[in-house]
Amino acid sequence: MSQGKIIIITAPSGAGKTSITRYLLAKYDFLAFSVSAATRSPRAHERDGVDYYFLSLEEFKHKIQQNEFVEWEMVYEGKYYGTLKQELQRIWAAGKTPLLDIEVKGAIHIREQFPESTLSLFIEPPSVEELRRRLEGRGTETQESLMARVNKAAYEISFKHHFDLIIVNDHLEKACREADEAVKSFLGL
Questions:
Q1: In terms of C-beta distances under 8 Å and separation of at least 24 residues, what long-range contacts does 81-88 make, across chains too?
Q2: In this predicted model, what pLDDT tens digit does every residue of 84-137 receive, in sequence order?
Q3: Left, alpha or beta for 188 (phi > 0: left; psi -120 to 50: alpha)?
Q4: How far apart are CA 132 and CA 28, in angstroms?
């Protein structure tokens, strides 16, 4: 796979990675959002091919067998997520840098494959308790799914030192500025 640079934003669910990703995408037209594949159903506002490539479990497993993913993971029981090789190729072919908003283990897999050409940013919540408050505030979680996400977050935070930069998201504007500076430095701007 021909390769350019890759920027990864990773974090536990609710830490702010999507907000920081949106900030960077709005600021720089040379960045392009890498659309992940997922086996979960779309939420009300999500569109196939824009927010995710929504695949059936059978389609996803077929793509695994065909070696079409750069990385993939069963993130929650029966819920698979991954980054398709063709998605990175599409962005590089357009002369842009892919910006990946992905989960922690997938981010580690990509760093291992592209160690010289990847910038990886770990967005850390100020605390697990604050993360719980943020997730509760979304109103999208059952008590069971909330507990699963909070427990998973505590586990994911233990991997933060695998990444190039840890940004504590205690104030979103500050976290966005730190991510912006890291991107500019990485791309030589």
A1: 81/36, 81/37, 81/38, 81/39, 81/106, 82/36, 82/37, 82/38, 82/106, 83/34, 83/36, 83/37, 83/110, 84/37, 84/53, 85/1, 87/34, 87/35, 87/36, 87/53, 88/1, 88/3, 88/6, 88/34
A2: 999 999 999 999 999 999 989 999 999 999 999 999 999 999 988 888 888 888
A3: left
A4: 31
- Is 1 a domain residue? no
The CATH number linked to 180 is 3.40.50.300
Q: Which domain holds residue 110?
A: 6-187
Number of structural domains (the chain) is: 1
Closest CA to 159 of 122, 111, 132: 122
